[in-house]
Recover the amino acids of this structure.
């Protein structure tokens, strides 16, 4: 029973972060929705169904689950966030070794995001 409540709490925390991410370009939405769907699947059929059928969030989750896809709008904002993150690091004059590690990591993330399919034509 305690494990179920922990999954439920994790699901709601992830939903909260996803909602914040919808408004803040530096905070991702889709990864938090995937965590929420995973947590709700283990804790509450009702909340899992609600999330999967949600007008805005459901298509993002289904697009990933069914097609391994990230929609173009999410890709765009991911690239903006990555660019701003690295730009801020440069502006803060972080040590070159940190910038190199960050550049390598962000390059890998960029490659992963941009090589995912967009999903089915006509929407998710």
């Amino acid at each position: 029973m305690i494990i179920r409540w922990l999954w439920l709490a994790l699901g709601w925390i992830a939903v909260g972060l996803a909602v914040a991410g919808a408004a803040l370009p530096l905070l991702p939405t889709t990864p938090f929705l995937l965590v929420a769907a995973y947590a709700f699947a283990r804790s509450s059929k009702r909340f899992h169904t609600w999330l999967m059928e949600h007008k805005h969030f459901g298509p993002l989750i289904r697009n990933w689950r069914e097609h391994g896809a990230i929609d173009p709008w999410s890709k765009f904002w991911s690239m903006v966030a990555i660019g701003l993150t690295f730009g801020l690091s440069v502006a803060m004059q972080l040590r070159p070794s940190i910038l190199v590690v960050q550049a390598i990591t962000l390059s890998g993330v960029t490659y992963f995001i941009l090589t995912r399919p967009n999903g089915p034509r006509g929407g998710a």
User: Anything to note?
Assistant: Residues 72-114 form one domain. The chain is about 75% helix and 0% strand.
